[in-house]
Amino acid sequence: MKRYIIICLSLWLFASCGSKPETGASAEKTDSVSAQSLQMVSFNSEQLKSVGIEVGTPQLENISGVLNLQGEIDVPPQSTVSLSFPLGGYLKSTKMLPGMHVKKGQVLAELEDMQFIQLQQDYLTAKEKFLLSESEYHRQKDLNASKASSDKVFQQARAEMETQRILMNALGQKLEVIGIDPARLKADNISKSVAILSPINGFVSKVNVNVGKYTSPTDMLFELVDPRDIHLALHVFEKDLHALSVGQRVVAYTNSEPGKKFQAEIILISKNLDQDRMAEVHCHFEKYNPSLVPGMFINGEVSVNSKEALTVPEDAVVRWENKHYVFTDNGTGKFEMLEITPGVISKGKQQIEGTGISSSTRLVVKNAYALLMKIKNTEEES
Question: Under a CB-based contact definition with an 8 Å cutoff, are residues 91 and 213 in contact?
Fold first, then answer.
């Protein structure tokens, strides 16, 4: 009896251990089927008729037309100015807000601090000492010429004058750095505050200070943008780079106002590709428009020359989560979503490229969005 019980327990433990891998494999298989089901969709014959789905094959033909690109408004580093102040101080006043237009030389803010007073005092003191040493130098020069003074005394007077000249000029340069003109500085117009002036014509993009705040020389107080060099940065797939060249015309428009066109010209095509195999194309606007704000998303259309490629009707291509797809017909009302790379659009035809797609591949060429909507609804329900 004891032997019988041991055999039964051994069989039970063996069955328990063997069931664990099966459970894991089953779960993995379920996840795989679930992920695959999101790429698959099926319709019966009545549904196919009601939604108006049509199936066809891509056509290999010469296509010339417009290459549609997406990008954003960008500002090159040389057109962005970050303003700081070489000395620390308390912000006395400012009326600047992001988006405000400013002119070159306009007062952006005022700082005040005791060290501004000290620097002006040191300069004026050094200036008076220089004038005194200069006078003494000329006096010793005359005395030395008549041998009434020794050469050593004359040389000491000259060294003292040059020392004071160096000190005065150095302090004068420091005053110019903080915006004070040494030539106009006098004992009766010493100021405890200094003005921060705009170095360009443009607009304020960032304000990082408030009244009463103490700022250090490393703090960025304002960021200004020169709109004259605002340009358009478009993203283009590797396969379309050969169709673009410097000097080509670009018609740009925003999603909010597609009817409002902005003319631009390609000035630079990047030679580096990102992880999505895309390069940047930089374009200059013919005329700056205040509605073009850095960071704004924008579309660009570029006319390209004729080339042979696989094309489908525009209705065959759907866009989901910033990627483009078509649906292949697997027969008996089953369709699979396949990612593709879009190309030129011309006269209702869309150039496409994708793994396994040829001129004999059966694709949905009309009302493909009906299939996408069913996949979205299935994903939400799950």
Answer: yes
What whole-number distance in Å separates Cα of residue 92 and Cα of residue 100? 19
| Cα end-to-end span (Å), the chain | 53
CA distance 325 to 327: 7
* CA trace torsion 264, 243, 71, 347 (10° rounding): 90
Maximum pairwise Cα distance, the chain: 140
- The residue type of 338 is L
What string of DSSP letters covers 146-195? TTSS-HHHHHHHHHHHHHHHHHHHHHHHHHHHTT--GGG--GGG--SEEE
> Residue with structure tokens 């993009």?
205
Q: Which two tokens stand for residue 266?
A: 């390609």
C-beta of residue 207 within 8 angstroms of C-beta of residue 98? yes
Q: What is the pLDDT of residues 310-328, one digit of tens each?
A: 888 888 888 887 788 998 8
Q: For 361-374, what is each residue's pLDDT tens digit?
A: 888 888 888 888 87
- pTM equals 0.55
Identify the bridge partners of residue 281 per DSSP, sorted by sequence position: 234, 269
Helix (H) or strand (E) holding 111: strand 107-112
HSE (CB half, 13 Å, CA atoms) of 306?
A: 3
Average pLDDT, the chain: 82
What is the Cα–Cα distance from 312 to 121, expressed in whole angstroms? Answer: 79
Q: Tell me the CB-side half-sphere exposure of residue 14, using CA atoms within 13 A.
A: 6
Q: At what angle do helices 151-177 and 114-145 cross, to 10 degrees?
A: 150
Residue 19, SS3? helix
Angle of CA points 80, 86, 91, to nearest 5° = 85
Q: What is the pLDDT of residues 207-231, one digit of tens each?
A: 999 999 999 999 999 999 888 778 8
What three-state secondary structure class fits 33?
helix
Sorted by sequence, the CB contacts under 8 Å of residue 3 that are 6+ apart come out as: none
Contact 53, 367 (CB under 8 A): yes
In angstroms, the CA 144 to CA 163 distance is 20
Rounded CA separation 71/234 (Å): 4
* 3, 11, 28 from 6: Cα distances, Å: 5, 9, 35
In whole angstroms, what is the distance from residue 179 CA to residue 105 CA?
Answer: 11
